[in-house]
Amino acid sequence: MSYLVVGALEPRAISVEGEARTSMKIYGLTGGIATGKSTVSQMFREAGVPVIDADVIAREIVAPGEPALEEIALRFPGVLDANGQLNRAELAARIFADPRERDALNAITHPKIRERARLQAEALAKAGHQVALYDAPLLIESGSDRFVEGVILVICPKALQLQRLMRRDGLDAAEAQARIDAQMPLEKKRAFATWVIDNSADAEITRAQVEAIIAAWAM
Length: 219
Prior knowledge:
By secondary structure, the chain is an alpha/beta fold. 47% of the residues lie in helices and 14% in strands. It is built from nine helices and six strands. It has helices at residues 37-46, 54-60, 67-75, 88-97, 99-126, 158-169, 173-181, 186-189, 203-217, and strands at residues 13-16, 22-31, 51-53, 131-135, 151-155, 195-198. Strands 1, 2, 3, 4, 5 and 6 form a six-stranded mixed beta sheet that branches. The two termini are 35 Å apart.
């Protein structure tokens, strides 16, 4: 479930000083909900590209004992279950229904996600990686596209996106459409994209597009 705005990684190329100076370029990966961005992200991993996953970080920072979870519990009473875990479905229902609630959540999580992503990027640069992928569902909405070398946008037809979301999250059509509508339309995201991956066909066609992008980075 993608519902957290992710902060920017600055700068777009991270340099590390030491015995061997290295510089790592960061590219951004994004897409609409249920377009298959996670599938594409995995393909980049399989091709050897390290991925900084904003969704993973977002889950880590709301684990029991994390400061963000305590702040969320205070701001959104009733979103913790009996075991002190975040009830994601309850929180999602609130924030998708009210943009002000989304803003309140983002104000809590934004700086924490940004800092953890920055530390991961620095560690990858120190390990000698030349490129990394920043996988963030709201890369463009948060303005983080300004701080990456290029933006990869994953798309699929609207009807397929709706169908995938209904099947994945067990939603009816109205609920699924409301979650799609809460994000920037894919048509508008295209204006920010350096590369567009159409993920509506079979996996090998999608993989070929991924490989073409990686080849372009080497030019």
